[in-house]
Prior knowledge:
Layout: E1 3-8, E2 18-23, H1 32-41, H2 43-52, E3 60-64, E4 74-79, H3 90-108, E5 112-115, H4 127-140, E6 147-152, H5 155-168
Parallel strand pairs: 1-6, 2-4, 2-5, 5-6
Antiparallel strand pairs: 3-4
Helix pairs in contact: 3-4, 4-5
Bound molecules: adenosine-5-diphosphoribose.
Adenosine-5-diphosphoribose is lined by residues 10-12, 22-24, 30-36, 80, 116-123, 151, 153-154, 157.
Organism: Micromonospora rifamycinica
Pfam families: Macro
Protein name: O-acetyl-ADP-ribose deacetylase (Regulator of RNase III), contains Macro domain
Amino acid sequence: xxxIEVVTGDITRENVDAIVNAANESLLGGxxxxxxxxxxxxxxxxxxxxxxxxxxxxxxxPTPAFDLDPPVRHVIHxxxxxxxxxxxxxxxxxxxxxxxSLEVADTLGARTVAFPAIATGVYGYPPGQAAVIAVATIRxxxxxxxxxxxxxxxxxTRAHLAAALAAAG
Length: 169
Ligand code: APR
């Protein structure tokens, strides 16, 4: 089980082997963290994403990190669920985002991975519920990743992630 840390900051500044992108199915870029990662990685990221997409919700696909600063070598693109009230399998899709991203990290030999709060922005997933799913899924997924950093972009998200991590024991 990887060590899990909750931090606040910009995921494009993380010193890890792979950063996870909360993408849309096209993998061509967008707003939010997707936009930040594409701005930092440069135009080759959208070309690489377009070449391997579309990515289904709950799945994860890797590309190189291009212009992102070392040591980041990979971007793992995953597509979260759009929140529709909770009765449409959103929790299972979100859990799959974390699980598949760790599985992809293992195929890359990535040992340290940073995640944003997937689906809690534009896609509207309640951040408290999302944080519980993130921590539970990371703790229960067999992986060679030994350090996971959950990167919050704001204090509310950080508090939810920290509470979920503390409650997990
Ligand atoms: N670093 C870390 N986290 C960030 C950053 C950043 N630079 N920028 C935004 N975030 C946070 C948001 O504050 C939110 O907590 O990432 C979390 C996820 O929000 P979104 O980026 O809106 O992602 P999501 O809710 O999964 O929606 C995905 O939005 O940008 C589009 O193309 C994307 O269509 C896709 C959709």
